[in-house]
Each structure stands twice: as C-alpha cells, then as structure tokens.
Amino acid sequence: MAPISDLRDEARMIASIVAGESHLFHELIRPYERRVYVMALSFRNLASFRGEAKFGTWLVSITLNEARSRIRHRDTIKMESLDEPPDDEGPISPALLRDWREIPSEVLERKEVSLLLHQAVTALPPIYREVFTLRDVEGMSVNEAAGALDISIASVKVRLHRARMMLQKTLAPQLKRISPKRRWWTWS
Amino acid sequence: MVIDCKHVWAHISGYLDQNLPPEVLEQVQKHLEHCEICSAILDSTRNILILTADERVFELPLGFSERLHARLEQEIDGMS
C-alpha cells in the first residue's frame, strides 16, 4: 500500500495552509486521524520538527509531544530512567508453547480478544510501546520510526525485538486459551 | 555452526523483518527445521503481529474524528 503522502501533494496543501487557507488543515489531517489516536496512546521521546520530514512523521512527533507535555503537566508519570529497563537489559524468554495453534483473524470480532491485544500493547513500557505502535501498528519503516522518535535505527531494532518478545510472552498463552484447536495462516 | 534455541529467540524479530545476515539466516532456518518449540514461538510472534496490526484493535472511538476536528478548529481560530 502506498503511503498517504505519495497519493496526494501534501507539500502543496501545507503551502496553501501557510498562505492563509487554514481550512485545508482539516483535509490534510483527515487520513491521519487513526495515527493521531494511536500515537496519543504513546507519549515519550519526541523528536523536534525536521523540515525534511514527511507530514505523517512530523505529525507523530507533535502528537507525542503534546500528549507527553499534558501528562507531565498532570504529574502522573515517573521519570523514564526509574521505571523503564535499559535497552541492553538481558534477553526475554518467550512463552514456550509446543502445541501452539494459530488463531483465525475472525477472533477479533470478539471484543475480549481486541481488548486483550489492546491492553497488552498499552501495558508495554513506553519506550517499547512507542516503537511497536509506530512500526507494527502504524506500519512505519524502521527508518521512519527512528526519525519520529529521534533515536538510532539500531535502537529501534532492539526495542522492537524486545516489544515483540514481551507481547509474545504475554499474549501467546492467553490467545491459545481462547482458540486452542484451530489453525490459521500458514507460515510464509 | 549449530545454534541453540536462545540464540534463535534473539533473532526472531530480525527473521520476521527479513533483515538477518545471510549466514545467521541460514543457521536460524536450519534450527527451525527441526525445533518444534522455536517454530511455535516464531509462529505465535508473527500471528500476534498480524492481530495487533488489525485496525479493529485500535479502532477510533466513536466521535473521535468530530472531537479532533472541533479542537483543531478551535486552535486554528486561536492562531488567527
């Protein structure tokens, strides 16, 4: 699927907005509403705006920034250095399920399954949740995620791996209980 | 070189993203051919990624779009 920014001339839209056609901002942001919502669930490690960034990447940054400043203002979060493990912490052992059975996507019709997934992602420590949501929920490339979060590509890869392993450990046993007998997609 | 399960787990993310160096990829694939546990871990991780990427998991709450645009309008008015 082509990125939204490849399907329309966002640079021209932005130029028009800057020139005074402020109502166009609604059209500019409309395809990104879901991204704004998903990013509102994340709130740390913001990059400063980069003129060369795509609008979608920039939007992630300002959304994260806004969410973080509001949360800070409410003084409801701990400092990152105290409540998050460093990137180089030891490996995470995955859930060992010899008889893992794959689960059909139709299970998402069941609200409790969506809720389980939602809860597991939002329960990740922020530095892992950010990378996971950008890469695996929003489909950004590793490079784009690194740019939006202002971290190195290597850090994105390390955090992504840890996030995925944490989710596997949490979710695999829960999903297996929900649909223990069916197989789903074949490995490709 | 033969690698054990823990080494394979360390490469699961890279395997899924298809960015492992060729020699590591070969070692991981050889291991997966005979290790049922690692194959299951790989499948479960991949399937979890497929599920969490489904739009229904992070569905926009009812009225989110209207509230977002109303707030934008408010901000735009405030700037002019």
What key attributes describe this structure?
heterodimer; A: 188 residues; mainly alpha; Arc Repressor Mutant, subunit A; 10 helices; disordered C terminus; B: 80 residues; 71% helix; elongated
Quick summary of this structure?
The complex is a heterodimer of chains A (188) and B (80). With 188 residues, chain A is an all-alpha fold.
Morphology call of chain A: globular
SSE string of chain B, helices as H and strands as E: HHHHH
**Average predicted confidence as pLDDT of chain A:** 70
Distance between the termini of chain B: 67 Å
Distance between the termini of chain A: 19 Å
Low-confidence stretches of chain B: none
Would you state the CATH class of chain A?
Answer: Mainly Alpha
Overall tally of structural domains of chain A? 1
How many E-type strands of chain B? 0
Judged by helices, strands and strand pairing, the structural class of chain B is mainly alpha
The average pLDDT value of chain B, as a whole number, equals 85
**Biggest sheet descriptor of chain B:** none
| Helix content estimate of chain B | over 70%
How would you sum up this structure, described in words?
The complex is a heterodimer of chains A (188) and B (80). Chain A is an all-alpha fold and 188 residues long. Chain A has a single domain, classed as Winged helix-like DNA-binding domain superfamily/Winged helix DNA-binding domain (Arc Repressor Mutant, subunit A, Orthogonal Bundle). Chain A is 58% helix and 0% strand. In chain A, α4 runs parallel beside α5, α5 crosses α9 (142-149) and α8 (126-137) packs across α9. Chain B has 80 residues and is mostly helical. Chain B has one domain (5-79). At the A-B interface, α3, α4, α7, α8 and α10 of A face α1, α2, α4 and α5 of B.
